[in-house]
Every structure is written in structure tokens, then in C-alpha cells.
Amino acid sequence: MMNSTQVSYFILSTYFDTKMFKYLIFVIIFCLFVVIVGSNVLLIVVICMNRTLHEPMYIFLCILFVNQLLGSTSLFPFLLIQILSDIHIILGPLCFLQVYCVHVYSAIEFFNLTIMSYDRYLAICYPLQYNTLMTFHKVAVFIVSEWLISCLGVCVFTSMSFSLQLCGNIINKVYCNNYSIVKLACSDTTVNNIYGLLSTTLAVVLPVGLILYTYMRILKVCFSGSKQTRQKAVSTCTPHLASLLNFSFGVCFDVLQSRFGTNNGPNVLRIFLSLYFLTCQPLFNPLMYGLKLSKIRSMWRSLFSVKLR
Q1: Enclosing H/E stretch for 2
Q2: Which one of 39, 195, 236, 253 has the fewest beta carbons within 10 angstroms of its own beta carbon?
Q3: Handedness of CA 242, 244, 248, 251 (dihedral sign)
Q4: Helix (H) and strand (E) counts for the chain?
Q5: How far is CA 239 from CA 46, 111, 198, 233, in A?
């Protein structure tokens, strides 16, 4: 047995030889990364520079776009290097850094989507009291809390994985994943598994449950309210629900693949689906929110004189 601090590198075994196509794949992935960074940064700038968008909903959106940058930059630079490399290895410290960044991104995504659903719940169900219920002080508390809980919580289980005794260094993925490292352990991982279940409940199950509850209340108000209330709910809640479903699908597939080792289907498809929540979500959110929310659409028109439909 060897301690994980003595493992100098990990081998990523899911990569396969693409021969000369690796340069084409590199260009495609690089262009995708540029589009993701560009679109998220642009929307962050639009929200920050326009006072009319300095509202709780758009502040939470800005945090969402910042988190997209964290998720994409924790994967794409490393992925681009691996595509051009003939030997797919990653240094131990960099592997654990990637584990930390990817899991912080996932936790903040769920927490922020939960806060956004609560914000929509207050705006639709209590429109007259909204400004007193959702103050900028409360917005700041929500944002600081979600980042602190995510960063500290992920730091704990990353440290626990780092201290495990490992019997190997082969990871069956194209990037570093916490559970893939835990599976390499020859020491007892009971504490890791218990903490993993607790953190999953706190970061995934509980937020999704709260989101479902707020939308049940929103639907109840919409069915008993006016046509204007229903239109407001549809226009502001549709992007949020689409984002939640898109991200949940990607995370669920990655968890199922990591836990149960689903090897059915083409290798390329399995790699794509395992990367879905890290690649498609950062691209999906700017497009969805940028096109669906009327205030952001109007800003696009004023900045670029382009009518987005």
C-alpha cells in the first residue's frame, strides 16, 4: 500500500487514440471554450455595467455566470492539453485541485439555482412585499453563504480523499473525480462514503426538494392568479427550470457512471455524457437567459443593435 501523498501522478485510462483527428477535436474544444468564456464574461459585464439590472434576480444570475467560468476553466485547459498528449497522466496535486474545483462548481450551481427559485417564489407569490423580503443585505448573505458552505464542505472531503491509502493510480475517466480516487483506496472508506452521502444530501437532494416546493407554490398562485401573473411566471421561471433540468441530467449521468460503471454504448458517447454538466451547462445558461429575459434582450439590442428572437 502507498499513501496518496506518495502518488506522484494519476493515469486517465478513458482517453483513446484519435490519430490525426486529435487536432480537429482540439480546435472544436478550443472554440467551444472560447464561446463559453466569451458569452459568460459578456453577460457578467452587461449585468454589472447597467444599473437597471442591479436587481436580486440579475445579481444571482451574475453569480451563476461566474460559477460557469469556474466550472469550465477547471476542465477545458486540462482537457485541451490531454487531447494533444500521447500519455494521459496528471500530477497528483493537480488532480486533487481539479477534484476540488469541479465539486465546488457543482455545489454552487445547485445552491444558486435554489436561491434563484426562492427569489422567483417571493417575486410571484408576494409581489407587494418583495422589496422588503429580498433586500440587498439578504442577497449578500445568500451569496457569501453558498460560496462558504461549498468551498469548506468540498475542502473536507477532498482532504479526506487525499489522506487515503491507495493501491493504484488509474482513473477510468477523462478528468479527476473524487469517487474515482476513493475507489482506488485499499484502506477503509466508510467515513468517506458517509460524508459523501451527507454532502450529496445537503448539496443536491435538499436544494432540489426546496426548488420543487417553491414551484408547487408558484404553480398554485399562477392557477389562481391573473393572466399577467402567469405570463410573468412563465417568462422568468422557464429559463430557470430548463437550467435545473439540464444540469441535473448531466450530474445524474456522471454519478451513475462513476458509482455503477456503466460501460454500455459507444465510448465517445459515454465521454460526452460524463462531461455534459461541465461543458453544456456553461454554454446553455448564457444562451437561455440571454435570449429569454426581456431586460437582457433589450440590453443586447442597445449594445449591438441586433434584435434577438
Answers
A1: strand 2-3
A2: 195
A3: positive
A4: 13, 5
A5: 18, 16, 29, 11
Q: How far is CA 83 from CA 17, 29, 67, 177, in A?
A: 9, 9, 25, 18
Cell representation of residue 2: 502507498
The pTM is what?
0.89
CA distance 135 to 178: 37
User: Where on the phi/psi map is residue 261: left (φ > 0), alpha (ψ -120 to 50), or beta?
Assistant: left
The amino acid at 109: E
Q: What is the pLDDT of residues 9-68, one digit of tens each?
A: 899 888 877 777 888 999 999 999 999 999 899 889 888 888 888 899 999 999 999 999
Taking residues 176-192, report their average pLDDT.
86
DSSP structural state of residue 308: -
